[in-house]
Specification:
Blueprint: E1 6-11, E2 23-26, E3 29-33, E4 38-44, E5 49-56, E6 63-68, E7 75-80, E8 85-89, E9 94-99, E10 108-111, E11 120-124, E12 131-134, E13 140-142, E14 153-158, E15 165-170, E16 175-179, E17 184-188, E18 202-207, E19 214-219, E20 223-228, E21 233-238, E22 247-252, E23 259-264, E24 268-274, E25 282-287, E26 291-296, H1 313-319, E27 345-350, E28 355-359, E29 364-369, E30 377-383, E31 386-394, E32 399-403, E33 409-412, E34 420-425, E35 432-437, E36 442-446, E37 451-456, E38 464-469, E39 477-481, E40 485-489, E41 495-500, E42 505-510, E43 517-522, E44 527-531, E45 541-543, E46 550-555, E47 562-567, E48 572-576, E49 581-586, E50 593-598, E51 605-610, E52 615-619, E53 624-629, E54 636-642, E55 645-653, E56 658-662, H2 664-675, H3 687-690, H4 702-713, H5 718-730, H6 733-745, H7 764-780, H8 790-808, H9 812-821, H10 825-831, H11 837-848, H12 859-865, H13 869-878, H14 882-893, H15 919-935, H16 939-948, H17 952-961, H18 965-973, H19 980-995, H20 999-1009, H21 1022-1029, H22 1034-1043, H23 1049-1061, H24 1065-1074, ...
Antiparallel strand pairs: 1-56, 2-3, 3-4, 4-5, 6-7, 7-8, 8-9, 10-11, 11-12, 12-13, 14-15, 15-16, 16-17, 18-19, 19-20, 20-21, 22-23, 23-24, 24-25, 26-27, 27-28, 28-29, 30-31, 31-32, 32-33, 34-35, 35-36, 36-37, 38-39, 39-40, 40-41, 42-43, 43-44, 44-45, 46-47, 47-48, 48-49, 50-51, 51-52, 52-53, ...
Helix pairs in contact: 2-5, 4-5, 5-6, 5-18, 6-16, 7-8, 8-9, 9-10, 10-11, 12-13, 13-14, 14-15, 15-16, 16-17, 17-18, 17-19, 18-19, 19-20, 23-24, 24-25, 25-28, 28-29, 28-32, 28-33, 29-30
């Protein structure tokens, strides 16, 4: 069973800035701590980037520290304020050891060095002692003499080679030095001048990796020192540029002995140091916000791809030192350097919660998550007139506005307003947010002006739990407070009403239908309805029934008399307001209910969030919980959706994450009805009718009604109908980008496309034009700006972006002119000959009078300038910069970039054709970029790249491969041509309809999209397969037979008997399967399969071509006890065929499980039929071969005469895949998103499931959706062996 609601977006929590040790790493893996969870990132070589792979949410209170095991890269440990110490296995993605109920809160943790001690974890509180915990046998001991300190402990550090040597850092800045073997304790304090500074804690300390006695220390007030712990003396005092600068974090660089990094606490300046000098070697401004933690990944690698071709690394670093200069470097750099910037990747965590991975050598971010919340997110709301903007309010005192398309913060409140409980957007395009706070009343924030424009203090210092802006009257703003009142005010501050409650009022909501009706929830469990049209301060209606406080109330946006309420009694009640009656009680949550959101198109759908961490979807007509999801790791507070994107939801939680959800899996059936040609009246209905208990799923909101009206004006245009309904159901701007590109492919002008087109993936013929305009805009936006400080830095950054675009567009002269504006003379001079000799001499003359010298090295820049476009593209793709590589390749294809300069030729700066062209380069870039998007679980963008180059066939195939089947049909119907993936797509969708007994819909789809659904030559067709598998009663089967022109089931039985008598067993089998005598058809199927497999030269394709109907047996027949033996044989053959198909199609994740399933079925078949032709030894040999992942690719891809007998047998039987839409692993949309939950472990692979789970028919076994789809494409039967069919499509 597929999920009805699927997670499609995640904004991770930021790194908490309160505790010191919040970042840890091991090799290429790293992790950081949010308030309640640890976020683990690993490098994905297939995607070429670091990805969030798992979230550990073991703790219930703030995490204090983290430490990665020194000898086991899969283990790290955390300690938290809940008195727990937890060991987490990254590979297994679960907690493997836990120490809890400690009498204190551990604030420092670390693994004991030494391979014989690699399982021992040390931890301590602020007062000590140091506790040693053997995480394998659970033994506990304490280290002598580690209590009774004069000042609290801030940290401890073991020496990396000697476990008997360790230090404690203290709050007064002193170091306690231990040699446990001698049971001694020495103290090293700051110098005499700072002895009186009690508030001078040791913030960071790391042992020198090349020394037994040197320690690098950072203190709050006295800065950074290198100390000799043996001599108890200071070797070097490192000097920061100003006394106003401090550092709380430092890290050695393993790839550069003697070098280390620090991050300024006040600003985002990363400083590179050498122990040989007291001042920083280089200072790099990487972010405006100050550093909290940093950690250099210990991956010592030679970055060969960044060397200049034809030179050694030493020569390269020497000859190019004079050219070094990148934006962000200190302006005081010397003309030449006596050092090389080491190849290091730095995990950076900032005071605002931002987290990123910085490439020190390339001076660029590998990725940067800038502004995640660092505390509980209490509320989230979509903007009233723009579903692409989503606001959040947090315990951390900030309000953020996110782009729901990019999941990046576009606005952030500047001042900390304390705890913010609630937010509400102003109606229409007013661009304002009302916010309710714990102590500062209500304020209104103008997001465009980025300032607070109103404050309302009617509630005094009492907490404001909810604010609600009337969406039909912008002058009315309501707020509920701990002072037991609900205040309605005008925006000028005039009080309209003050509604008093007997106890604190928590929730309030305006009706969208009756603008004067306001509902409130109270601590006394009573819901009150107030009517502002009445001149009274008494409730208009009173709703009683809850046993505890009512926290949220929500009016149904489509049915005016319906209200839902969520309570601490763990229930949700649905009310008929006018009659004051409760019509339904929704039970299932196990903790207080918080978030509530009605759907804007389906009036009976309600979503809820609770302190039990679950998100639930309800049908309020029956009270049934349609789905419960536990991807959040803590209480769900905020829950919202939007009228124009009704099937997109957002949730926020105490786990500090913001998540996006799609109801597309549930509503896709309506899109299939559109594709099947059903009348719009079958899809869109009236709200009251939809609320009837037996009513079918229909739309009833304003958007769907508007679509109907527009379609009538357009004469029910099928292309428009498919586009508009698909955009409604999928609610994604990336889909809008896809449709724009399809429209271009159909010949539409750019001016007729949606406004968002320029922000998405551009058609190849528009790419260079738009990027040229972007470069000019970047210049013009800064043309009249000047100044110093951050404004000047922003100007330089914008100009550099413009220069970079001009370069890639082939406009070398303008690129050089902007470099001159930035003072980058040497680079401009080096590039000037690509324009003309005269231009070069002009720049040299000007440079003579300039004293400022800045340096840089840029492989792409020089390659483009000298016409080596292929080398430039190769370099960019090696850096995973596929979008930029495509831009350069396309510019070259259009003749915009210089050609290579030949010796003796003039340099006139004219652009020429590149001879053989760069079309192959453009194609290669497109393919690689598409693959990158696909493996990043973004099939929309992956398909868009192919559409951008008018390769519709590849785009449709990719959508089919990623299970976007209905969308593939919609797009193909709008394009000319035949697409091989369409037939596969509609057949899989028909199977989906079969699984829900919607046979009429399946038949319509097959007739509309499968040209071979009914063959006249008598060959087995998709419609015949549907009839044979049909589980409906005899009357319905007979009707389907009639509709598609087949004989009745009874007539099929007679014809089958006649064919059998005539010796035509293949046709006889087919008609028996279509008849009411399927048992006979099953027996014939098995007999014929066994005979085919007795031939030593059989192949999967050969068997299925001759016996296409052989597996088309009703599951209900296979599951009967009397069918046990034929079922087992059929499942054995199907599983073995599936394993071979999975190998040839590259579905490597399911190859081993399919072989294992086949082995068990084959063994069982041999138990009652020793002559069963599939040999268990053969299956075992092939299984063992496929256990080695490195050999999987070679099994199929190499020629038939390569390898051992087992490999040759596999290749022969499996054959080659002819359909490109079936090749390559399945990656569904957002299937790489991790959850906090440990609930879902794949039954077939044993790994934790990322993305949507798929439950099998027993409701216990579960696969990832990707696994289920790949399995079903190769073997239609369930892994449980029951004979049930698997349909995850």
């Amino acid at each position: 069973m597929s999920s009805l609601m699927q997670q499609v977006g995640l904004v991770p929590a930021g790194c908490q800035p309160w505790n010191l040790n919040m970042v840890a790493s091991c090799g290429p893996k790293f992790a950081y701590c949010a308030t309640l969870a640890v976020y683990i990132y690993e490098h994905d070589s297939e995607c070429g980037r670091y990805k969030l792979t798992s979230i550990n949410a073991t703790h219930s209170k703030t995490i204090n520290c983290i430490s990665w095991n020194l000898y086991n890269p899969d283990l790290f440990a955390t300690a938290a304020s809940d008195g727990k110490v937890c060991v987490w296995n990254v590979k297994l993605r679960k907690s493997v050891a836990l120490r809890e109920k400690l009498s204190y809160s551990p604030n420092c943790i670390g693994w004991v060095p030494g391979k014989n001690r690699g399982d021992i974890l040390a931890f301590c509180g602020k007062q000590g002692p140091l506790t040693l915990w053997n995480t394998v046998n659970n033994n506990i001991s304490t280290v002598d003499n580690t209590v009774g300190f004069d000042y609290n402990i801030t940290l401890f550090r073991f020496h990396h080679t000697d476990p008997t040597k360790f230090i404690f850092g203290h709050y007064d800045g002193s170091l306690s030095i231990f040699n446990a073997g001698k049971k001694t304790r020495n103290c090293l304090r700051p110098n005499a001048e700072t002895n009186a500074l009690n508030d001078n804690p040791v913030l960071a300390a790391i042992w020198d990796p090349l020394s037994t006695d040197y320690l690098l220390v950072a203190r709050k007030l006295t800065g950074i020192q290198l100390v000799d712990v043996k001599a108890r003396s200071v070797i070097t005092n490192f000097t920061l540029p100003s006394k106003m600068i401090s550092t709380h974090t430092l890290s050695w660089i393993d790839s550069a002995p003697g070098m280390f990094l620090t991050g300024d606490h006040e600003t985002g300046i990363l400083r590179l140091w050498s122990v040989s000098q007291s001042s920083p070697l280089e200072s790099i401004n990487v972010k405006a916000t100050g550093f909290h933690c940093l950690n250099v990944l210990d991956t010592i690698q030679k970055d060969e791809e960044n060397e200049v071709p034809g030179t050694s690394s030493t020569a390269s670093s020497t000859s190019n030192d004079k050219l070094r200069n990148r934006f962000g470097s200190s302006s005081s750099q010397a003309r030449t350097k006596s050092y090389s910037v080491p190849p290091a990747k730095v995990v950076c965590a900032f005071a605002d919660g931002g987290v990123g991975l910085y490439n020190l050598h390339l001076k660029k971010w590998e990725f940067l998550r800038e502004q995640g919340h660092i505390e509980t997110i209490f509320d989230c709301k979509f903007k009233a007139d723009d579903s692409s903007l989503l606001a959040t309010a947090s315990f951390d005192g900030t309000v953020k506005v996110w782009s729901s398309n990019t999941l990046k913060a576009v606005h952030t409140s500047t001042d900390n307003e304390g705890v913010i409980y609630s937010i509400s957007w102003a109606p229409g395009n007013l661009n304002c947010l009302a916010c309710g706070t714990r102590r500062k009343g209500v304020f209104v924030w103008d997001i465009e002006k980025s300032k607070i424009i109103r404050r309302f203090k009617e509630h005094g210092m009492h907490a404001v739990y909810c604010v609600a802006w009337n969406q039909r009257d912008s002058h009315r703003l309501a707020s509920c407070s701990d002072d037991s009142t609900c205040v309605v005010r005008r925006m000028d501050g005039q009080i309209v009403r003050t509604y008093k409650h007997p106890l604190p009022a928590f929730g309030c909501d305006w009706s969208l239908i009756e603008k004067d009706l306001l509902a409130t929830g109270c601590k006394d469990g009573v819901v009150r309805i107030w009517n502002l049209a009445l001149e009274q301060n008494e409730p208009y209606r009173v709703l009683k029934g809850h046993d505890s406080k009512v926290f949220h109330v929500r009016w149904n946006p489509l049915v005016g008399n319906v209200l839902c309420t969520g309570s601490d009694d763990r229930s949700i009640r649905v009310w008929a307001v006018e009659s004051e009656t409760c019509t339904m009680i929704l039970t299932g949550h196990t903790a207080p209910v918080r978030g509530l959101a009605w759907n804007y198109e389906v009036p009976f759908l309600l979503a809820s969030g609770s302190w039990d961490s679950s998100l639930r979807l309800w049908d309020v007509r029956s009270g049934k919980c349609l789905q419960a999801i536990k991807d959040h790791g803590a209480d769900i507070y905020g829950l919202t959706t939007h009228p124009t994107s009704p099937f997109m939801y957002a949730t926020s939680s105490r786990d500090s994450t913001l998540r996006l959800w799609s109801l597309a899996p549930m509503t896709e059936k309506l899109l299939l009805k559109v594709l099947a040609g059903d009348s719009c009246s079958d899809i869109v209905g009236l709200p009251d009718k939809c609320m009837e208990k037996e009513a079918p799923l229909q739309l009833a909101g304003s958007v769907s009604r508007s679509l109907l009206a527009q379609l009538q004006e357009k004469n029910n245009s099928v292309p428009l109908k498919l586009r508009w309904f698909s955009e409604l159901f999928f609610s994604s701007r990336r889909l809008e980008n896809l449709w724009n590109l399809v429209c271009i492919g159909r010949g539409q002008r750019e001016s007729s496309l949606s406004k968002s087109y320029k922000d998405g993936i551009l058609h190849i013929k528009h790419l260079t034009k738009h990027k040229m305009a972007e470069a000019q805009e970047a210049e013009h936006s800064q043309a009249h700006k000047s100044g110093v400080g951050s404004g000047s830095r922003q100007r330089d950054k914008s100009l550099m972006q413009a220069a970079d675009l001009h370069l890639k567009l082939g406009n070398i002269k303008r690129h050089c002119e902007i470099l001159v504006q930035l003072g980058q003379w040497e680079k401009a001079i080096a590039l000037a000959p690509a324009v003309s000799k005269h231009f070069w001499s002009q720049l040299v003359e000007k440079y003579v009078s300039v004293l400022k010298h800045e340096n840089d090295q840029d492989t792409v820049t020089f390659n483009v300038a000298i016409g080596r476009v292929r080398e430039a593209v190769k370099f960019m793709t090696s850096q995973s910069n596929f979008q930029e590589a495509l831009l350069v390749a396309q510019s070259a294809e259009e003749g915009n970039t210089p050609v290579p300069v030949q010796e003796g030729s003039s340099m006139n700066g004219q652009n020429h054709d590149h001879g053989d062209g760069c079309n192959d380069l453009v194609e290669s870039c497109c393919n690689e970029l598409s693959e990158r998007h696909y493996h990043n679980a973004d099939p929309y963008s992956a398909a868009a790249v192919h559409f951008a180059r008018d390769n519709a066939q590849a785009a449709i195939n990719l959508l089919v491969k990623s299970n976007k089947l209905a969308l593939a049909l919609c797009l193909s119907r709008n394009l000319k041509g035949n697409f091989e993936g369409v037939t596969r797509a509609v057949q899989m969708l028909a199977r989906q309809c079969e699984s829900t007994n919607e046979y009429d819909l399946a038949v319509k789809l097959l007739k509309n999209f499968d040209p071979q659904c009914l063959t006249r030559d008598g060959a087995w067709s998709s419609l015949q397969g549907l009839c044979a598998r049909c589980e409906a009663d005899e009357h319905i089967r007979a009707k389907i037979h009639q509709d598609i022109g087949l004989p009745s089931p009874a007539d099929c039985a007679e014809k089958a008997a006649s064919l059998k008598s005539a010796g035509d067993y293949v046709k006889a089998m087919q008609f028996y399967l279509l008849s009411n005598q399927q048992q006979t058809g099953l027996e014939i199927s098995i007999d014929m399969l066994l005979k085919k497999l007795e031939d030593a030269n059989w192949t999967v394709d050969g068997v299925m071509k001759q016996l296409p109907a052989v597996f088309s047996v009703r599951s209900s027949l296979l599951k009967q006890q009397s069918s046990k033996q034929p079922r087992t044989k059929m499942l054995a053959i199907s599983a073995y065929f599936g394993a071979l198909l999975a190998l040839r199609r590259g579905y490597f994740a399911v190859v081993k499980p399919l072989y294992q399933h086949a082995k068990s079925m084959v063994d069982l078949s041999h138990s009652f039929d020793p002559d069963f032709p599939l040999l268990s030894s053969h299956v075992q040999e092939e299984l063992e071969l496929c256990l080695d992942p490195s050999r999987l690719h070679g099994v199929i891809e190499t020629s038939n005469d390569v390898g051992n007998d087992v490999m040759k047998r596999i290749r022969h039987r499996a054959g080659r895949e002819a359909e490109s839409c079936m090749c390559g692993k399945t990656v569904t949309d957002a299937s790489d998103l991790p959850s906090h939950s440990d609930d879902h472990i794949s039954t077939i692979s044993g790994t934790k499931i990322s993305g949507a789970p798929f439950f099998l028919e027993d409701q216990r076994s579960v696969l990832s959706l990707n696994e289920a789809i790949m399995w079903a494409k190769c073997n239609e039967f369930s892994p449980t062996g029951s004979g049930e069919r698997l349909c995850p499509f």
